[in-house]
Amino acid sequence: MTRLRRTAVLLAVFVCAACGLVYELALVALGSYLIGDTAAQASIVLGVMVFAMGIGALAAKPLQKHALVAFAAIELLLALFGGLSVLALYAAFAYLDLYAPALVAMALLLGMLIGAEIPLLMVLLQRIRQQDAGSAVADLFAADYVGALLGGLAFPFLLLPVFGQLRGALVVGVVNAVVGLAVVLTVFRRDLVRRSMVSLTAAAVAVLAVLGASYALSQRFEVTARQELYADPVVFATQSRYQEIVLTQSIDGADVRLFLNGDLQFASRDEYRYHEALVHPVLAGARRDVLILGGGDGLALREVLKYPDVGSVTEVELDPAVVELARTDPRLNKLNQDAFSDPRVHLLNTDAFAWLRDETPKFDAIIVDMPDPDETATAKLYSVEFYTMVKKALAPGGRVVVQSGSPYFAQRSYWCVGASMAAAGLTAVPYHVDVPSFGDWGFFLAAADGPAPQLRLDPPTQLRFLDADGLRAATVFPADRRRVDVPPSTLMEPRILEYAREEWKGY
Fold first, then answer.
1. Which of 183, 247, 410, 467 shows a CA-CA span of 20 to 30 A to 58?
2. Which range is least confidently modeled, 48-62, 177-191, 226-240?
3. Where are the alpha helices (DSSP H) in 228-298?
4. Are 431 and 471 in contact (CB under 8 A)?
5. Residue 369 falls in the annotated catalytic set
6. How confident is the model at residue 1 (pLDDT cuts 50, 70, 90)?
7. CA atoms within 13 A on the CB side of 335
8. Cα–Cα distance list, 164 to 203, 215, 380, 471 (Å)
9. Sheet containing 256-260: which strands, arranged edge to edge?
10. Angle at Cα 99 formed by Cα 96 and Cα 103, nearest 5°?
């Protein structure tokens, strides 16, 4: 019987550790989706929570006299606040613009509660059978660490895909409350007075009711809160494995916008300006085999397919959910002219960095249409190492174009792209155009051999925006936005990430 009781307590340690790690990972993931700074979000959450765990462990000392009731109460509080943590932080971000202080406060609270668990569980374990401190600590921490592994694996591979962020945290809160209370009411039921048992049961029912109601209303809340972040009505939203995908449409239906993790990717009113400037200069020459890195919306692909002499187009897009939306949503499919159905298109849903490292095909023209380098995950796609691999994928005489951000809003970021391309052995010519939804937006057209390629056009039909005169003017930069000397960005020193975060902070 003693062994069975000890096993039950260690199982509770295992489950509670898994729940605690899920709460931590949920806060990190939410911050990366909302703010985009994965490394900083992880550092803040983990640093604050580990600190708070130490405070919680110390605060649990006077509670050891009432370890049973204290442990049950802490588990119920942890279940309540941990389960509601994602919902509360999303509300703080959407409605109050108080995400950063709310994140610190939530990490402190959860950390203190998690930290108080271990000392109380140690008391409960020793109450069943006394053993030397070293053995007790070994048993307890073994269950705790293995449970953390379960939580770490369950979060990305089970909770996120099946339940999503909001509901996943609520489900874990329910598990946390049930397991924490169950071990007290079963293993130690003889040690509880009736009043404590009734009080804890009533509190558990209340916590489960709150979590259950929140689960039932979570979808409505998410839709309402998300709408607060966008000017136009949200007509589609989903959380893919990689990012939040949102599509909005103006009331009059004239403007459709795609957002990834809150960042605007295009506005249908003026996207043709961006995509004509991106695609057509790089296709003025040999263009039998074309590679597009990114551009899962199919709009750059649409421009490439206007050339009848293009033989094949390889599209490398990490997120299949973006491509699926571009293929099936009637608004996007009309906009990209059903580009993915063209037999010349070869789609690869994989990471462009890894694919370039492993593959050795050669292309006449390469179009790099990646999200801005304001996140840790995307900064590597603007590095010297990345452009070196792009260079190797160019056929003799081939050209590459890179969307490079705004030389007006993010001057150092823009010229850092040019410096990184030069460090990789690419000779580039900078140019920029006005895209009203983005502002002043820039590109680099480059070649691997000899001087920078000539900036010219050879379109199969007249374009809506770009012509020869406009392209010549695009190479002229005003005095306050001309080239600045900045070092290149590398994998080990992603300087462009620092520039982008600092320069876009005021916009």
1. 183
2. 177-191
3. 271-279
4. yes
5. yes
6. low
7. 27
8. 27, 11, 27, 45
9. 234-239, 244-249, 256-260, 263-267
10. 135
